[in-house]
Known about the structure:
Elements: E1 2-6, E2 9-11, E3 17-24, E4 33-40, E5 47-53, E6 59-61, E7 69-75, E8 78-83, E9 92-100, E10 109-110, E11 114-118
Parallel strand pairs: 2-11
Antiparallel strand pairs: 1-3, 3-8, 4-5, 4-9, 5-6, 7-8, 9-10, 9-11
Amino acid sequence: VRLVESGGGLVQPGGSLRLSCVASGLPRKFDEYVMSWYRQAPGKERELVAYNIGVSGKTRYADSVKDRFHISRDNPNNTSLQMNALRPEDTAVYYCGERHSRYKYDPDHWGQGAQVTVSS
């Protein structure tokens, strides 16, 4: 299984970015997986940002990003994270994860990460 993130970069406060995660080598159908986004800021632990359960479509967001970020599955094997109204505290390395499950979201596999920097 391989997960590859893209779309990170530098953005001013209040701006937007869209991260993409392309999964390859999945042994089962894409909608059997829970796809998630996590982030890790310098000196902090990795934290859940959002996840999407393929079989039900259920999504969950961290309180800190609710109403600003949106997770979606755009086409087979691609998971996006639309990030709006970005704040300096959103600065982190963002990781895509996957787990073959109907409800568990902690990943079995991770991507390499994409740096997001929010600064003026």
